[in-house]
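hey m, so remember when u said the tokens were messed up on ur end? i reran from scratch. heres the input so u can diff it against urs
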Amino acid sequence: MRIISGSLKGRRLNPPTNLPVRPTTDMAKEGLFNILNNYVDYEDCAVMDLFAGTGSITFEFVSRGAKEVTAVDINGPCTDFIKSSATRLNVKNLHVVRADVFDLLKRAYKKFDIIFADPPYAHESLAQLPDVVFEKDLLTDDGIFILEHPKEYSFAEHPHFWQHRNYGKVNFTFFAKKLDED
């Protein structure tokens, strides 16, 4: 797995094969960041990556100069891998948290400019994630929440729905706290 852009472009992440993850494909990551590049000044962004897994998305945000990035995963070997990768890559603006995402969100108070979530596709609470993020008011006024999910889900009727994109089997739904009326 490689970092596709930014200061760490081309650097490889070589996670152990036994991690219980489904990393976002390079094609999907490129599509995701092509969209975000039109809306985001990374240097001003506080980012939270939920269900961070190998840290693939985490390190893309770090590489693009995000002000601070928080990676959250419940799996100890995953968080250990992200921490060791951060050390190897000399990353200083990354905070790694080992926690259940829903427990963490219940007690969260900090606001983020971008929250990205890539839960296991079979997670029983996947569909509730947008509601939790907005009920807890975890985004800044111009904040964006991005949910990676299987095609069986549609969030087009959600009050904060902004747009949906798919890249092969990968689907991203974007939610915005403040929707443009244009």
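this time it looks ok to me. Residues 105 and 133 are 7 Å apart (CA to CA). if urs says something different then somethings off w ur setup not the seq
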